[in-house]
Structure formats: structure tokens, C-alpha cells
Design goal:
two-stranded antiparallel ribbon, 25% strand, 4 helices, globular, 188 residues
Length: 188
Amino acid sequence: MVPELVLYVGPMFSGKSTRLVRKINRCKIAGRNIISFKPIMDNRYTSDGYIVTHDDSHAKCFLISKGSQLIEIFDQEHSKSTIDSVAIDEAFMIDDIADAVVELFYNRKVSVYISSLDLSFSLSPFDEIATLLSHATKVKKCKAVCPTCGEDASYTMRKSSGNNSQITVGGSELYEPRCLSHYANLNI
């Protein structure tokens, strides 16, 4: 099997995690040994070791905060049974994830599947994801639906102002997908 590095990127509510969970299930059906990860800070729907989508699909995962933890867990699991694929949800929340993914993909010949925002609410690219995009063998830019006009939404708008942190965990209470015409924070 030739390894691949696939990224599902786009705004919130565009189905990135749903696509990732589908890929995890497809790998399992194909007899591949896949392990999954998500950031420990992402506790929106559950904190007990599952990737959970907005439509309540689930996939068991390890919780991590940095790329070195991913490598450590991968090595432990690989020593028990050969791992040929890794899935990572919300990768933008994981420190140094690009180095870990590059290590797995190039040096260990492991397929890696990632779902992540690519842009913050302020339209700044997440550095780790920008790095991974340049290494990807396939990128799927997912679109949401703009609640204002019903057109494709490629951006995530934060509903409340005042918090300038690029990463604030939240769901529909804090964020909305928007098309460019209805993106309120447009200040570029």
C-alpha cells in the first residue's frame, strides 16, 4: 500500500469530521489497522476518548495535546500490532502536529488522514495546517452553508467579539459558517 496524506479542511460545520469518521470506518472495513487522535482540549461533545461529529457519529480515539504524544502512542500501539494508518481530528489544536505527521508519512510510510480548520475566525491560516497542506497527497476543501444566504460558506465567523484568541473551543453558540459576502469580521 502506498501511503497517503489526506486533509479535509474548511470552516466549522462543513462535515470535515464526518468525512474523517467515514474514512476511519472504510479503513477498518478494508482490513487496515488505523488508530485515531483528537486534541484533549476539544471537549465539545465528549471528553471520554471519541471523535464525535455534529450529527453524532463516533470513532474511538486517543486524546493528545502535542505531536510528540501522538508519536509516543503510535509507537506503543505499533509494538502490539502493525499500524498502517492514522486519523487526526481538529489537528489545528495540536501543538507541533506537522512534525509528527511528516515523521509518520515520510519516514514510517503510514497513511495519515486529517480533519481541521485551515483558517481562524480572523482569516489567519493555522501554521501547522499550512505546513501540512504543502505535503498533502490529497486535499478536500469542505464547504458549509451560509445561514444568511444559503450559499457555500468557506469561512468561520466568531459571533461574539472581545476574545482575540485564535483557538477558543466552541460550537454553534460561538461560531457560524459564512460566505465571503456575509463574513462580518472582514478586515483584510
